[in-house]
Amino acid sequence: MTDGRTTGTARAFELLEPLVQAATVRVHAPPGGYDNPGSHRTGPTWGSGFFIAPGWVLTCAHVVGEGGAAVRLTGREVGITFHSGRPRHGGPGAPGAVTGTVTGRVECVLPERLEERRPGRHALWDLPDLALIRVLAPVSHTCVWLTDRSRPRFDEVAYFGCTEDLGTPEITGRTTRLRGTAGNGAAIRLADDDEIDPGMSGGPVVDLARGEVVGVVKARRHTGGGGLAVSVVQLRTLPMPARGQTGLYRRIMQAHDLYHYDQHLSDLDNRRTWTDLHGELPPQEHDPYGGRGRLTPGERTTLCGLLAELPPPSSSEAVRALVEAVRGEEPDPQPPAPLSWRDGLGLLHDPPGGTGEAAAMLRYATDVSVAEYREPPTPGADEELWDWVRATAERLWRPLRRELGERHERGLAERERRRRASAGRTAGGPARRAGGLPPGASVLLEVWAHGWEHLYDWRVSVLAGPAHPGRLTPVDSGVRATVAALPERLRAPLAEAFRRCDTHVAAALLEVAVAPELFGLAVEDWVVSGGVPLGVQRPVVLRHPGGRGDHGPGTGPAGPDTHPADHEADPGAGRSAARWARVQAGPLQDERADCAGGRPRAPSAAWLSGLPDTTVPVHCRAADQEPTLGSLHAVRDAGYGVAVTRRPPPDPGVSCAPFHRGLREELADAGRADVLPVRLQTLRGRAYGSDPDAYWAAGAGLVWEDPARPLPDVEPLHGDL
User: Which of 414-418, 433-437, 506-510, 669-673 has the least mean pLDDT?
Assistant: First the structure.
């Protein structure tokens, strides 16, 4: 222990040390593997790691990359030396603790781009610099308790890892203090109270006041003590699953919570569990509740276990909506987004308005017990959660018990109403016609030209959609980026926005709001995650930017500043609404807007206004050049909410006839406009899969001014010139 620590900190370290040491492992080359062929020796230490769920070890990506710069990280086998079984007393060397070695396989690294580009030797690896290892044999071990808080508390912590102070590898722990964050909250800074030795990278950082792991040791300072750790909340940035599958993050967190729940309920032995330890930690200083008004450690473990037995939420937005209903305000937008029911609990610590933490979490659990799940729960699982809520509320005040009962009854009635409505839609036709867009939140990417320079400002947001028209939640923004730099600058913000909006049944729509001269921006070809272009993963559409300009209403056909009463004053708004409604129903017909027989033309306003409302204007030339640029503005002014544009092929001599022919057949086959975003996604997928019959659609973009998804009027401020 470092001198100067408080008595409470010393006692917390004494309690935590045995359990953390038992869960911490040494990472090295696999016995007899390619780094040690023909040998059962483990070789030198690469770094540390720790069990977060049965069979799963968390460490740093640079640890599993040790000695293998040319080797692919994902799928690489590594050696794990751990302590089998939990000691009854003392540390890993105590009686009953058996040291063993097993092979593990790297399942995933973060960020994914580390597979494509890695830093040089002795250079810092990109954040979050995490790796998940799956143990390839069933072994008995203990697991740490992970925090559910989105932000760390800047209190005293302990960090653990493998050192060789006495000439042999052993797991040791030291104490320090958190002194800030870095990397937009992805990393936390460790003060220089003590030295971080080589080999400790990948070990756990434990909040001593709360007894929970908050970080993973990443790097030490070259000039002395202290260093960086990665926030364990970055696990939420694990790759999103394919539609209809449970993602790796949710699977691991479910296993984590069920492990601790089972340990808490077991009476097979008297060995200390993490829940026991939480109950023995010294009381926190300056606790506004003085321990009252919070769930007890046993209640918290039980609640997490009962939530883990339910199917996961349908989307991140579903979790945020329940948290907002409890808090009475929008939860912390700090990324990464909450993905599990447990993550919602982490947004309810110290709720506003003096509301007790226990009361807030019981209200949340009540709402979860009657929420929409990805699939039907195990029979009785939701009822078991509600029974626990009702029983736990018995120790609290009577008005809360009555409130929770009424809340549960309202939730049951609303769930039954949704079920009846769903059954009615199944009999009379689906609410969203087959092949249409998902009705929920979408991701909005806005890009603005930075004056006369070839630089651009950008903003990524979540657009709530028809349920909350015009509601916008910013995710991230930036200034002065070149076109070439935009894909990399936007990779992380877009990934975070997709995590918030994607559901288990559909990938969220990406709306790209840019001036028409930027309609040629190849956003659908960008790769954010999974190595697959965005336009193959999800529907991508173009929007005219928000804010009133020189070319018609700034929010599209029916923005937030457009009301039915305004239609007489603004005939264009009524015309736009009529065209939108009719083109959605079809049948569709295409019309070349900037081309006649392969030659460019500029359409007149009178000609455009006279076309049938089910017309889809088609542009085949460069959007940033005339006559196409003027045509795009004219089409918008004429009230068309659906149009097609294209980035022409590099060879200007290539005929546009195959594009127009293929698009005409596609529109005729679609029949109505509401399926076009998804059909264009399918076309991109076919082309990505090397289908020659879909090559004609390369570079095609869909302009989609949905009046149910109004854009904001306000542009962000430009950066300093």
Answer: 433-437
Q: How many CB atoms lie within 10 A of CB 482?
A: 12
Among residues 630, 624, 555, the alpha carbon closest in space to that of 594 is found at 630
- Taking each helix axis from N to C terminus, what angle separates 486-501 and 316-327, rounded to the nearest 10 degrees? 70
| Beta pairing class for 642-646 and 510-513 | unpaired
Query: Cα–Cα distance between 426 and 649 in angstroms, integer?
Result: 44
The CA distances from residue 504 to 267, 367, 426, in Å, are 37, 20, 20
Q: Choose among 46, 29, 2: nearest CA to 169.
A: 46
Residue 616 identity (one-letter amino acid):
V
Average pLDDT over every residue of 384-412: 91
CA nearest 465: which of 710, 715, 703, 704? Answer: 710
| CA–CA gap between residue 233 and residue 230 (Å, rounded) | 8
Give the strand pairing for 540-543 and 510-513.
parallel
The torsion angles phi and psi of 445, rounded to 5 degrees, stand at -110, 120
Mean pLDDT over residues 511-521, rounded? 95
Q: Is 207 left (phi over 0), alpha (psi -120 to 50) or beta?
A: beta
Question: What is the enclosing helix (H) or strand (E) of 659?
Answer: helix 657-670
Rounded CA-CA distance 348/332 in Å is 10
pTM of the entire structure? 0.82
- Give residue-wise pLDDT tens across range 161-187: 999 877 788 899 999 998 888 888 899
Tokens linked to 322: 């329940």
In this structure, how many other beta carbons lie within 10 angstroms of the beta carbon of residue 120?
6
The torsion angles phi and psi of 341, rounded to 5 degrees, stand at -60, -35
> How far is it, in rounded angstroms, from Cα 527 to Cα 525?
7
Q: Which residues pair with 78 in a beta bridge?
A: 104
In the chain, the amino acid numbered 37 is: P
Q: What are phi and psi of 157, to 5 degrees?
A: -135, 165
Range picked from 239-243, 476-480, 556-560 for highest mean pLDDT:
476-480
Task: Quick: pLDDT tens for 645-687.
Answer: 999 998 888 899 999 999 999 999 999 999 999 999 999 999 9
Closest CA to 370 of 386, 357, 359: 386
What is the rounded CA–CA span in Å between residue 203 and residue 201?
6
CA distance 363 to 361: 5
Provide φ and ψ at 135, rounded to 5°: -75, 130
Percent composition of the chain: helix, strand, coil (DSSP 3-state, to 5): 35, 20, 45
Is residue 428's pLDDT more than 50? no
Amino acid at 630: G
With pLDDT > 90 as the criterion, what percentage of the chain qualifies?
Answer: 57
DSSP annotation of 596: E
The radius of gyration of the chain's CA atoms, rounded to the nearest angstrom, is 28
- C-alpha dihedral (451, 455, 460, 464), degrees to nearest 10: 30
Place of tokens 């045509």: 631
CB 335 within 8 A of CB 276: no
The DSSP secondary-structure symbol of 610 reads: T
- C-alpha span between 546 and 517 (Å, rounded): 15
Tokens found for residue 473: 């939640």
- The kind and range of the H/E element at 686 are helix 676-688
In sign, the C-alpha dihedral spanning 423, 429, 432, 435 is positive
**Contacts of residue 425, Cβ cutoff 8 Å, sequence gap at least 6:** 431
pLDDT of residue 285: 67
Question: Hey, how many other C-beta atoms are within 10 angstroms of the C-beta on 611?
Answer: 18
In 267-374, DSSP assigns E strands to none
Rounded-to-integer distance, Cα 345 and Cα 339, Å: 11
Residue with tokens 């320090």: 176
Q: Which two tokens stand for residue 87?
A: 């000691």
